[in-house]
Design a protein that fits this description.
The chain is built from three helices and 18 strands. With about 300 residues, it is mainly β. It has one domain: Porin, CATH 2.40.160.
Length: about 300
């Protein structure tokens, strides 16, 4: 069973990397054709500070996004909050709770909310109408189960809603993830198939969800002091991307992190937009994290997240 899982991940990685590099001047044929694209925005400052490469390294409640199988690593109940201070008055929030059951299972519930603030409505002639507050929302139920010390699987069921002025769209989606930890090597492999579900109808048209397949590895050569990560990200509406990250822990209290995410063919907002960085503090039962992400000419964005253990 363990060997089969390992070979499956290796084969999937090969297929994910098969397509030839796209010309940087090309636009992906599916760009702009998906609904609920807010689902592609990552959660948790720790993961974002390491180049969004967390499929095989995630071990807290934010695993519900990066790889639900990682929830099986929880040893005690957790409560998590995240605030993402984006540009143009856009705010991204996450809140969740996870509860280990017995020695091999974990259940969780979370909410992912994207607010665009207040926007001035206008009619077809450009005249002002009522102010409206568009938003995106995902309500998520998670379950993970471990099979021994090496293997774990997890899944999410999500209710989705998007509201723009008087129009709205709703749908459902699912995530399926797996995680394998070698017992003789400081290495973990993982995958996550995200946003699987039926098309979402908005006004008169229906659009597919932004299905994304993530495959990654995490390596800890110095026990838990140093973590090196790498993810391959294959979205259905854009080119393949790769994320790499490094995290170093000092005195079991301070964590320093950096990473880089590169989209095949070049990052749209410039090479520096792929850089990420941040730090974390472990204070008894609490984990506090911060991440800084540049978005080219759009400026810097800040993420703050908290995990409380009970």
């Amino acid at each position: 069973m363990n060997q089969f899982f390992t070979y499956t991940l290796i084969i999937a990685l090969i297929f994910a990397c098969l397509p030839a590099a796209a010309d940087s001047t090309d636009i992906h044929e599916n760009a702009g054709t998906r609904a609920m694209t807010f689902l592609k925005i990552g959660v948790g400052a720790k993961a974002m500070g390491m180049g969004e490469s967390q499929v095989a390294a995630t071990d807290d409640l934010y695993a519900s996004y990066w790889n639900p199988a990682g929830l099986a690593r929880l040893e005690q109940p957790q409560l998590a909050f995240m605030h993402n201070e984006w540009f143009a008055g856009i705010n991204h929030e996450f809140v969740g709770f996870a509860l280990p059951i017995g020695t091999s299972s974990t259940i969780g519930a979370s909410a992912n909310f994207l607010s665009f603030g207040e926007l001035q409505g206008r009619d077809r002639d450009g005249n002002e109408t009522a102010i409206f507050r568009p938003y995106d929302l995902a309500l998520i139920l998670s379950y993970a189960r471990s099979f021994g010390d090496a293997l774990a699987f997890g899944a999410n069921a999500k209710f989705l809603r998007e509201q723009i002025a008087d129009e709205s769209g709703s749908g459902i989606a699912f995530d399926f993830g797996g995680l394998y930890t070698f017992q003789t090597l400081p290495l973990s492999l993982g995958f996550n198939a995200q946003h699987i579900g039926p098309r979402v109808k908005f006004v008169e048209d229906a659009f597919g969800l932004p299905f994304t397949f993530r495959l990654g590895a995490a390596y800890k050569p110095w026990s838990d002091a140093l973590t090196l990560t790498m993810d391959i990200i294959r979205p259905s509406d854009n080119d393949i991307a790769a994320g790499v990250g490094a995290g170093y822990t000092i005195g079991n209290i301070l964590q320093l992190r950096t990473g880089y995410k590169y989209r095949l063919g070049g990052n749209d907002l410039g090479a520096t937009s792929g850089l990420t960085g941040g730090f974390g503090l472990t204070l008894r039962r609490f984990q506090i994290d911060y991440a800084l992400l540049p978005f080219g000419v759009l400026g810097l964005t800040h993420r703050f997240s908290l995990v409380a253990n009970f």
